[in-house]
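User: Can you recover a sequence for this backbone? Please restate the input before giving your answer.

Assistant: Of course. Working from this structure:
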Protein backbone atom coordinates (compact mmCIF):
# COMPACT_ATOMS: atom_id res chain seq x y z
CA UNK A 1 0.00 0.00 0.00
CA UNK A 2 1.47 3.32 -1.05
CA UNK A 3 0.34 6.85 -0.27
CA UNK A 4 0.81 9.99 -2.32
CA UNK A 5 2.42 12.70 -0.24
CA UNK A 6 0.53 15.94 0.34
CA UNK A 7 2.82 18.93 0.02
CA UNK A 8 2.71 22.57 0.95
CA UNK A 9 -0.61 22.59 2.77
CA UNK A 10 -1.74 26.15 3.40
CA UNK A 11 -4.27 27.65 5.75
CA UNK A 12 -5.89 29.58 2.94
CA UNK A 13 -8.87 28.36 0.95
CA UNK A 14 -7.03 29.20 -2.29
CA UNK A 15 -4.24 26.77 -1.50
CA UNK A 16 -6.79 24.18 -0.35
CA UNK A 17 -8.49 24.35 -3.72
CA UNK A 18 -5.16 24.07 -5.51
CA UNK A 19 -4.32 20.89 -3.61
CA UNK A 20 -7.64 19.34 -4.62
CA UNK A 21 -7.25 20.26 -8.29
CA UNK A 22 -3.84 18.59 -8.41
CA UNK A 23 -5.12 15.18 -7.28
CA UNK A 24 -5.83 12.50 -9.87
CA UNK A 25 -8.38 10.07 -8.42
CA UNK A 26 -12.10 10.01 -9.27
CA UNK A 27 -13.39 13.11 -7.51
CA UNK A 28 -16.66 14.85 -6.82
CA UNK A 29 -17.33 18.29 -5.31
CA UNK A 30 -16.68 18.83 -1.61
CA UNK A 31 -19.27 18.11 1.07
CA UNK A 32 -19.83 20.28 4.12
CA UNK A 33 -21.58 19.51 7.41
CA UNK A 34 -21.44 21.99 10.24
CA UNK A 35 -17.96 23.52 10.01
CA UNK A 36 -16.31 20.52 8.32
CA UNK A 37 -15.47 20.49 4.62
CA UNK A 38 -14.54 17.13 3.06
CA UNK A 39 -13.18 16.48 -0.43
CA UNK A 40 -13.50 14.43 -2.51
CA UNK A 41 -16.98 13.08 -1.81
CA UNK A 42 -16.37 9.74 -3.54
CA UNK A 43 -13.28 7.56 -3.95
CA UNK A 44 -12.71 4.75 -6.44
CA UNK A 45 -9.58 2.61 -6.01
CA UNK A 46 -8.25 -0.11 -8.28
CA UNK A 47 -6.84 -2.11 -5.40
CA UNK A 48 -3.22 -1.18 -6.09
CA UNK A 49 -2.83 2.45 -5.04
CA UNK A 50 -3.62 4.79 -2.20
CA UNK A 51 -4.96 8.32 -2.07
CA UNK A 52 -5.98 11.04 0.38
CA UNK A 53 -9.10 12.74 1.67
CA UNK A 54 -8.76 16.38 2.72
CA UNK A 55 -10.58 17.73 5.76
CA UNK A 56 -10.85 21.45 6.40
CA UNK A 57 -12.28 23.19 9.46
CA UNK A 58 -14.10 26.21 8.02
CA UNK A 59 -15.41 27.32 11.42
CA UNK A 60 -14.09 29.94 13.81
CA UNK A 61 -13.04 27.53 16.59
CA UNK A 62 -10.74 24.53 16.90
CA UNK A 63 -12.67 21.29 16.41
CA UNK A 64 -11.97 17.56 16.81
CA UNK A 65 -13.26 14.90 14.42
CA UNK A 66 -13.36 11.11 14.65
CA UNK A 67 -12.95 9.04 11.46
CA UNK A 68 -14.51 5.59 11.23
CA UNK A 69 -15.33 3.02 8.57
CA UNK A 70 -19.01 2.13 8.27
CA UNK A 71 -21.21 -0.06 6.08
CA UNK A 72 -24.22 1.27 4.15
CA UNK A 73 -26.68 -0.31 1.72
CA UNK A 74 -28.77 1.49 -0.87
CA UNK A 75 -32.54 0.99 -0.85
CA UNK A 76 -34.93 1.09 -3.78
CA UNK A 77 -35.75 4.66 -2.73
CA UNK A 78 -32.10 5.68 -3.12
CA UNK A 79 -31.43 6.01 0.60
CA UNK A 80 -28.33 4.63 2.31
CA UNK A 81 -29.10 2.61 5.43
CA UNK A 82 -26.70 1.44 8.14
CA UNK A 83 -25.59 -2.19 8.12
CA UNK A 84 -24.53 -3.79 11.38
CA UNK A 85 -21.53 -6.11 11.66
CA UNK A 86 -23.91 -9.02 12.28
CA UNK A 87 -25.91 -8.33 9.09
CA UNK A 88 -22.92 -7.64 6.81
CA UNK A 89 -22.52 -9.90 3.78
CA UNK A 90 -19.22 -11.28 2.47
CA UNK A 91 -18.62 -8.38 0.05
CA UNK A 92 -19.17 -5.83 2.81
CA UNK A 93 -16.94 -7.67 5.28
CA UNK A 94 -14.20 -7.95 2.66
CA UNK A 95 -14.38 -4.23 1.85
CA UNK A 96 -14.08 -3.20 5.48
CA UNK A 97 -11.15 -5.57 6.03
CA UNK A 98 -9.21 -4.25 2.99
CA UNK A 99 -9.40 -0.52 3.60
CA UNK A 100 -6.66 1.17 5.63
CA UNK A 101 -6.77 4.79 6.77
CA UNK A 102 -4.92 7.12 9.15
CA UNK A 103 -5.18 9.10 11.30
CA UNK A 104 -8.47 8.14 12.91
CA UNK A 105 -8.89 11.28 14.98
CA UNK A 106 -7.84 14.82 14.13
CA UNK A 107 -7.99 18.20 15.85
CA UNK A 108 -8.10 21.11 13.41
CA UNK A 109 -7.64 24.83 14.08
CA UNK A 110 -9.81 27.14 11.93
CA UNK A 111 -9.02 27.03 8.19
CA UNK A 112 -6.49 24.25 8.72
CA UNK A 113 -6.52 21.41 6.13
CA UNK A 114 -5.62 17.88 7.15
CA UNK A 115 -4.91 14.87 4.90
CA UNK A 116 -6.38 11.47 5.80
CA UNK A 117 -4.25 8.81 4.11
CA UNK A 118 -6.25 6.04 2.52
CA UNK A 119 -5.27 2.78 0.86
CA UNK A 120 -6.33 -0.79 0.27
CA UNK A 121 -4.70 -4.14 0.99
CA UNK A 122 -6.53 -6.80 -1.06
CA UNK A 123 -6.03 -10.42 -0.05
CA UNK A 124 -4.59 -13.01 -2.39
CA UNK A 125 -7.19 -14.47 -4.71
CA UNK A 126 -9.71 -11.67 -4.22
CA UNK A 127 -12.73 -12.41 -6.42
CA UNK A 128 -13.64 -9.93 -9.15
CA UNK A 129 -16.30 -7.47 -8.11
CA UNK A 130 -17.02 -4.09 -6.57
CA UNK A 131 -16.41 -3.71 -2.83
CA UNK A 132 -17.63 -0.68 -0.87
CA UNK A 133 -17.52 0.80 2.59
CA UNK A 134 -18.13 4.38 3.78
CA UNK A 135 -15.82 6.73 5.66
CA UNK A 136 -17.64 8.69 8.35
CA UNK A 137 -16.17 11.97 9.61
CA UNK A 138 -17.97 13.01 12.79
CA UNK A 139 -17.44 16.01 15.02
CA UNK A 140 -16.71 15.31 18.69
CA UNK A 141 -18.60 17.85 20.82
CA UNK A 142 -16.66 19.76 23.43
CA UNK A 143 -17.19 18.63 27.01
CA UNK A 144 -19.30 20.99 29.11
CA UNK A 145 -17.97 22.01 32.48
CA UNK A 146 -19.74 20.48 35.48
CA UNK A 147 -19.44 23.85 37.22
CA UNK A 148 -21.40 25.68 34.53
CA UNK A 149 -22.99 28.67 36.35
CA UNK A 150 -25.73 29.01 33.74
CA UNK A 151 -27.69 26.18 35.37
CA UNK A 152 -30.67 27.34 37.45
CA UNK A 153 -30.29 26.91 41.22
CA UNK A 154 -32.06 23.85 42.55
CA UNK A 155 -32.95 22.56 39.09
CA UNK A 156 -31.43 21.01 36.00
CA UNK A 157 -31.22 21.72 32.30
CA UNK A 158 -31.11 19.54 29.19
CA UNK A 159 -28.69 20.71 26.51
CA UNK A 160 -29.05 19.28 22.99
CA UNK A 161 -25.76 19.40 21.09
CA UNK A 162 -25.96 18.65 17.34
CA UNK A 163 -23.27 16.24 16.14
CA UNK A 164 -22.35 16.82 12.52
CA UNK A 165 -21.04 14.13 10.22
CA UNK A 166 -20.05 13.59 6.60
CA UNK A 167 -20.04 10.17 4.94
CA UNK A 168 -18.30 9.34 1.66
CA UNK A 169 -18.16 6.01 -0.22
CA UNK A 170 -14.86 4.21 -0.74
CA UNK A 171 -15.12 1.81 -3.68
CA UNK A 172 -12.62 -0.90 -4.61
CA UNK A 173 -12.96 -2.43 -8.07
CA UNK A 174 -11.34 -5.77 -8.80
CA UNK A 175 -11.31 -7.07 -12.37
CA UNK A 176 -12.82 -5.78 -15.61
CA UNK A 177 -16.23 -4.65 -14.42
CA UNK A 178 -19.00 -3.20 -16.59
CA UNK A 179 -22.47 -1.76 -16.10
CA UNK A 180 -25.32 -0.32 -18.12
CA UNK A 181 -28.28 1.78 -17.01
CA UNK A 182 -31.81 2.62 -18.12
CA UNK A 183 -34.31 5.41 -17.41
CA UNK A 184 -38.07 4.79 -17.33
CA UNK A 185 -41.44 5.83 -15.88
CA UNK A 186 -40.85 9.57 -15.68
CA UNK A 187 -43.57 11.42 -13.77
CA UNK A 188 -44.36 14.59 -11.85
CA UNK A 189 -45.07 14.19 -8.13
CA UNK A 190 -46.64 16.54 -5.60
CA UNK A 191 -45.19 16.86 -2.11
CA UNK A 192 -45.36 19.25 0.83
CA UNK A 193 -42.52 21.34 -0.58
CA UNK A 194 -43.90 21.63 -4.10
CA UNK A 195 -43.34 19.46 -7.15
CA UNK A 196 -40.68 16.90 -7.99
CA UNK A 197 -39.72 15.03 -11.13
CA UNK A 198 -39.32 11.32 -10.44
CA UNK A 199 -38.20 8.37 -12.54
CA UNK A 200 -36.87 4.83 -12.20
CA UNK A 201 -33.13 4.39 -12.78
CA UNK A 202 -32.11 0.78 -13.44
CA UNK A 203 -28.67 -0.83 -13.50
CA UNK A 204 -27.32 -4.12 -14.80
CA UNK A 205 -23.77 -5.47 -14.70
CA UNK A 206 -20.99 -6.00 -12.18
CA UNK A 207 -20.40 -2.51 -10.82
CA UNK A 208 -22.20 0.65 -9.73
CA UNK A 209 -23.11 3.56 -11.94
CA UNK A 210 -22.55 7.17 -10.93
CA UNK A 211 -23.01 10.51 -12.63
CA UNK A 212 -25.30 13.45 -13.27
CA UNK A 213 -28.83 13.73 -14.62
CA UNK A 214 -29.58 16.37 -17.23
CA UNK A 215 -33.15 17.26 -18.21
CA UNK A 216 -33.49 19.13 -21.50
CA UNK A 217 -36.26 20.44 -23.74
CA UNK A 218 -36.11 19.98 -27.52
CA UNK A 219 -34.29 22.87 -29.21
CA UNK A 220 -32.92 24.32 -25.96
CA UNK A 221 -29.19 24.90 -25.64
CA UNK A 222 -29.04 24.52 -21.87
CA UNK A 223 -30.59 21.87 -19.60
CA UNK A 224 -33.62 22.76 -17.53
CA UNK A 225 -32.10 20.94 -14.58
CA UNK A 226 -28.82 19.25 -13.69
CA UNK A 227 -28.56 16.89 -10.67
CA UNK A 228 -25.11 15.56 -9.75
CA UNK A 229 -24.01 12.64 -7.62
CA UNK A 230 -26.66 10.13 -8.71
CA UNK A 231 -25.55 6.55 -7.99
CA UNK A 232 -27.00 3.07 -8.30
CA UNK A 233 -24.99 0.58 -6.23
CA UNK A 234 -24.62 -3.13 -7.07
CA UNK A 235 -26.88 -4.34 -4.25
CA UNK A 236 -29.93 -3.07 -6.17
CA UNK A 237 -31.03 -3.31 -9.78
CA UNK A 238 -33.30 -0.28 -9.72
CA UNK A 239 -33.93 2.79 -7.61
CA UNK A 240 -36.26 5.74 -7.60
CA UNK A 241 -34.75 9.16 -8.32
CA UNK A 242 -36.79 12.16 -7.17
CA UNK A 243 -35.59 15.66 -8.06
CA UNK A 244 -37.25 18.66 -6.33
CA UNK A 245 -38.13 21.37 -8.83
CA UNK A 246 -38.18 25.14 -8.36
CA UNK A 247 -41.59 26.52 -9.32
CA UNK A 248 -40.26 28.19 -12.47
CA UNK A 249 -38.73 24.90 -13.67
CA UNK A 250 -41.82 22.84 -12.81
CA UNK A 251 -43.88 25.04 -15.13
CA UNK A 252 -41.63 24.07 -18.06
CA UNK A 253 -41.73 20.32 -17.48
CA UNK A 254 -44.86 19.64 -19.52
CA UNK A 255 -44.55 18.24 -23.04
CA UNK A 256 -41.51 16.48 -24.54
CA UNK A 257 -38.28 16.26 -22.53
CA UNK A 258 -35.06 14.26 -22.63
CA UNK A 259 -33.56 12.70 -19.51
CA UNK A 260 -29.84 11.92 -19.82
CA UNK A 261 -27.44 10.21 -17.41
CA UNK A 262 -23.76 11.14 -17.85
CA UNK A 263 -20.52 10.01 -16.23
CA UNK A 264 -18.60 12.73 -14.33
CA UNK A 265 -16.33 14.81 -16.55
CA UNK A 266 -13.20 13.64 -14.74
CA UNK A 267 -13.76 10.05 -15.91
CA UNK A 268 -14.72 10.93 -19.48
CA UNK A 269 -18.18 12.45 -19.24
CA UNK A 270 -19.70 9.73 -21.43
CA UNK A 271 -23.42 9.15 -21.84
CA UNK A 272 -24.62 6.25 -19.66
CA UNK A 273 -28.32 6.30 -20.55
CA UNK A 274 -30.90 8.51 -22.26
CA UNK A 275 -34.63 8.45 -22.79
CA UNK A 276 -37.18 10.77 -24.37
CA UNK A 277 -40.62 11.16 -22.86
CA UNK A 278 -43.68 13.37 -22.88
CA UNK A 279 -45.03 14.70 -19.59
CA UNK A 280 -48.66 15.79 -19.22
Amino acid sequence: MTFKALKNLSKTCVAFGAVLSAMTWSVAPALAAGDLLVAPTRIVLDGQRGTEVILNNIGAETATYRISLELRRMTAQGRLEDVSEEDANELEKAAKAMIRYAPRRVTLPPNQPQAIRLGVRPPQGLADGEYRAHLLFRAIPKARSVTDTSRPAGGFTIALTPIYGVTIPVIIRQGNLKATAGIANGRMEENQNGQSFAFDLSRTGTRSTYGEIRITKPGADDPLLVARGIAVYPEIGQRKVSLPLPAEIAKQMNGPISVEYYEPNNVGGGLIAKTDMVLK
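That completes the design. The chain is about 10% helix and 50% strand.
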